[in-house]
Amino acid sequence: MEKPPASIALEKLNIPHRVFKHEKPLLSFEQAAAERNQRPEQIVRSILFQIRSEEFVMVLVAGREQVDWRRLRQLVRRSRVRMATEEEVLEVTGYRVGTVSPFGLKNQVRVLIDESVLREEEVSLGSGARQMAIVMKSADIRRVLSESEIVSLLESA
Predict the structure, then answer these.
(1) CATH fold of 5-151, please?
(2) Helix (H) or strand (E) holding 119
(3) Which of 43, 45, 59, 115 has its CA 20 to 30 A from that of 98?
C-alpha cells in the first residue's frame, strides 16, 4: 500500500499515527466510522473556507455538526465567508475534496481547531488519498498544529 501524503508528512515529524484503508467506496459518514471501528464523533472533517480573495482558512471539526457561519465570520473578522470550491480546495491544499488533511498541505493555511476534535482521545481524518484515513490521537493533532487556535464553531455548542 502506497503511503498517503498526510502520513508521509506526519512521519517526517515523528508523529505516531496509522493509515486505515477502506476496502469499499465510502457512501456515508456512518459507514466510514463503522469501518474504522469509531463513532461518528471521532471523524474529523477538514473544511476549507475562503475569507477574502486568495485567503483561506481551514476548520477542523469532529462529527456531523455544522459550522456556525456567524461564529466563523466573527472569528475571522469578515462579513462574508464562503466554502471553497472543489478547484480552490485542490489548488490551495493539494488534495481533492473528501481527502483533505491539515497535514502535508501544498500551501500554508491558517487552521482553526474546533474543540470537538479534542474531546475524543483518538480520531481519524483525511489522508490526502481516496479510501484512506489517518488515525491518531487528538493530542498529537494539537501538537503538530500548535500554532492553531482552539475555537468553538459548532451550531449545537
Answers:
(1) YbaK protein (3.90.960)
(2) helix 115-119
(3) 115
- Rounded CA gap, 26 and 6, in Å? 19
8-state DSSP, 85: P
Q: What is the dihedral of CA 10, 17, 144, 112, to 10 degrees?
A: 110
Whole-prediction pTM: 0.94
Specify the pairing of strand 132-137 against strand 18-21.
antiparallel
CA distance 132 to 98: 10
pLDDT in tens, 52-98: 988 999 999 999 889 999 999 999 999 999 999 999 999 999 999 99
Instruction: Please give the C-alpha separations between residue 66 and each of 14, 53, 59, 99, 139, in angstroms, as whole numbers.
Output: 32, 24, 11, 18, 23
Q: How far apart are CA 86 and CA 7, in angstroms?
A: 22
What is the dihedral angle through the alpha carbons of 20, 23, 29, 34, rounded to the nearest 10 degrees?
Answer: -70
**9-32 tens-digit pLDDT:** 999 999 999 999 999 988 888 999
Domain ranges of the chain: 5-151
Could you give the CA distance from residue 29 to residue 40 in angstroms, rounded to a whole number?
7
